[in-house]
Structures are given as C-alpha cells and as structure tokens.
Design goal:
With about 160 residues, this protein is α+β, with helices and mostly antiparallel strands. The protein has one domain: START domain (Alpha-D-Glucose-1,6-Bisphosphate, Chain A, domain 4). The chain contains three helices and seven strands; from the N terminus they run βααββββββα. Strands 1-7-6-5-4-3-2 form a seven-stranded antiparallel beta sheet. α2 packs across α3.
C-alpha cells in the first residue's frame, strides 16, 4: 500500500484477538513468548531509546533484525525501528513498526503499521511475514498453542 504522495511503501495489518491488552502487550515484548510464535526471541528492556534484537531460537543465535525502541506505552502502543540489513555495506534508514493495541470488551484490535520500507522487495516479504506471525500470535493467545505448522513456511498463494 502507498498513500499516493510518496514512493515509500507502507504496510498495515489489522487483526482481532480474544485477549486483554495486557496479554497482547506481553506477547509482543516477552522474549519467551515471541520465541514461541515467531521463531525469534525479541530481546529488549522495551524502554524508549533502548536497542532491541530479533534473535533466532534455532540454536544459531543469529540476529536477523535490530532496532531501537522509539515509544513504549504499555499496553497500548509500541513503536520500534526495524533494520533487517544491520551488516550491510551501505546502511539505509531503518523502517518503523508501530503496534497499536486497542481493547474492546473481551477482545483487542491489534494494528501493525510498517512504514518507511526501502523497496518493493521488502514490502513483498513483510506482506507474507506479518500475517503469518500475527496468525500464530492470535492462535497462541486464544488457544494456548501456536499453529501446528509454521505459517511462514507455506508456499505463496495465488495472486
């Protein structure tokens, strides 16, 4: 998606989860929980200005994404930078991810906005990635378990 005034793509995904805002916040910020539904532990103290890293839990310890916490207002809003090429020779401005957690009675609307994407290739990748990760998060919070297969391992659907 683009807003028509800029060539920088933005991606927005909205899902509804039967959980409290506090449960969703914990699922976004607890390294053990992110490891369960994402296959990566998101590690930080989640304070504005702090670093965060997206570390694989496959035994390699590799860090695939790094960034900085821009804003943390538990349990409502988390804003982070998202740098998926931290070791690149030509560094680029990181993209920005905003998690907006809005409670309504027994459910939460979780809106993930990923902005300042550097190119269409990254837009394509996250357009497959965010729905898979958030489906796994939703399943974990609603049933106590993740999906039986990693949804990001599915082959792309028909366009």
């Amino acid at each position: 998606m683009t807003d028509g005034t800029t060539s920088v793509p933005t991606y927005v995904y909205v899902t509804y989860i039967r959980a409290s805002a506090e449960q969703v916040w914990q699922a976004l910020t607890d390294a053990d929980l992110t490891a369960r539904y994402w296959g990566h532990a998101n590690i930080s103290d989640w304070q504005p200005g702090s670093a965060w890293e997206h570390r694989r839990v496959d035994g390699s310890g590799a860090v695939d994404v790094v960034g900085e916490v821009i804003k943390a207002e538990p349990p409502a809003c988390l804003v982070i930078t998202f740098e998926d090429t931290p070791d690149a020779e030509a560094p680029r401005e990181p993209s920005v991810v905003t998690f907006l957690v809005e409670p309504h009675q027994d459910i939460v609307r979780l809106t993930v906005t990923h902005e300042n994407l550097p190119n269409q290739e990254m837009l394509h990748g996250i357009s497959r990635g965010w729905p898979a990760v958030l489906a796994n998060l939703k399943s974990l919070l609603e049933t106590g378990d993740v999906l039986p297969q990693a949804p990001w391992e599915m082959s792309p659907g028909h366009a």
